[in-house]
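quick one, 207 residues, struct below
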Amino acid sequence: MPPTTFLAHLGLSRKLRAHGKDPLSRSAMANYRSTFIGTEPEEPGPLPRSRSAPCLGYAMPEASDAKLQEETLAEYVQQLSDRSQALQPLANPPELIEPEVPQDTLPATGHEMPASKAASVGSKGHPHFCCGPCRHFFRGECSWGGACSRCHVCQEEAKLDKRQRQLVASMDRGICLKMLATVMEAYATKYRRTDVLGFVHFLRRDT
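---
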């Protein structure tokens, strides 16, 4: 092999190695221009096609579920409105009857009432100014007796749960005031509270 040819091959091998290519590889393309030996960049081959990500087993909630929940809440609110219509006062209300006083609030005659049945200190001012019902008394477990700071006459009131509070909060303002006015009117009529009746008329005017 002539020295010039050997030197040319040696220079080409060094250039290919400098570019990180194997001089024996068929993909390494060399050229000779104006006494300079160079390499041509390889044409990039087709990129591999990416595969779709596998399903992780998580499904987004369907829109039909949210719509069904909304329809259920709307139906419940409509039922409340229908019930309030059924509670409307009659055109000719019946004669007022004085509420009966519970027997456990009457004073003892001839013998003392048991301590668990006696009116407690917290029962004074019942029903408007007492200290709230005693839970232990209605379970028969109040050991304070007459010295209890809670009311032994009031009945424990039912409280709304979380779902019911959310429904009331989302209720239309006019429907809510209408229901409140109906309940307050029944209370004021039963206990002859003319001051409350005036407030009820004010509520009905706003609705």
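The longest strand covers residues 29-33.
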